[in-house]
Design goal:
The protein is an alpha+beta fold. The protein has helices at about 20-30, 80-90, 100-105, 105-115, 140-145, 170-180, 225, 240-260, 295-300, 305-325; strands spanning about 5-10, 35-45, 50, 65-70, 125-130, 150-155, 165, 185-190, 195-200, 205-210, 210-215, 235, 265-270, 275-285. The chain folds into 3 domains: about 5-95, 3-Layer(aba) Sandwich (Rossmann fold); about 100-120 and about 190-310, D-amino Acid Aminotransferase, Chain A, domain 1; about 125-190, Dna Ligase, domain 1. The chain has 10 helices and 14 strands. A hairpin with a 4-residue loop joins strand 13 and strand 14 (about 275-285).
Amino acid sequence: MGKKTRVAVVYGGRSGEHEVSLRSAESVIRAMDPERFEVRRFLIHKDGTWDPGPILPTPGAHPDIDVIFPVLHGTFGEDGTVQGLFELADLPYVGAGVLASSVSMDKEMMKRLFAAANLPVAEWVTVYRGDTAASRGVDWIEAALPYPMFVKPANLGSSVGISKAHDREELVKALALAAEFDSKIIVEETIAGRELEIAVLGNRNPTVSLPCEIFPSREFYDYEDKYLLDQARFDLPAKMSAEMLQQMQSLAAACYSVVGCTGLARVDFLFDNRRNQLFINEINTMPGFTSISMYPKMMEQIGIAYPQLVERLIELAFERHAEKKATRFSL
């Protein structure tokens, strides 16, 4: 038997999605063939401490690690910060690099990039913590967007801190809630219609899955609906015309390319029934990997089972690292 690949699974993290990460990591670890992979666990606690100790930002400091599989969602895990650490350590790692992780996590920067590339996004305004104090109020937001509107922390996932505001009172409360999770807040128009997702896998020339449609049990697909209630319904693959399927897959690949993503991503769409148009909601560079998560389920639909998916992501990490090693960093 050949030498096992030593995989450092980094999970937990200083994030509102800490518990989701724990569940995703256990699923990933269970999927690894013990005959081929040797798992090293690195748990990051909510206070930022590492168990059994941190990965050091020094090349060669971890000869016992071949590749890192970061199963981290949200702040300090999906935003480019920990990816920068892995780059400094000169270790291959699964998923998007620093830039793609950072701009995909920041909903404002993501929207700006997509808009610059003529990709369809909902209308939005950016609000900073304190903007809505008595000196400014919310009149300017109401002048820019109609009710109802969505209020989101700019840098968070799994629908943490997101509210739907139907009037001024709800808007003020929603802004206060979002400000607890980020100093930058996105307020955007509501797209009334279908909620759709699609999975992307690869580095250059990635594979795009068949889409999934979500039927939330609540007014929108929030954190409780995703992870606690288990009442949302899904249609996989989603029912749509061949033309719409082609458009969605093409837009997903374009999103992936625009942010410079590698490894994997889930692209979320909204279909406006009134305008008969697809809008990109967001791109997630480390989507949920729990047993009930849609990313692995969508990949399964096109013939890539969960264990194969985990193995392919590790292969992609080695490929990306090898390409980077071919780059000169000094004269």
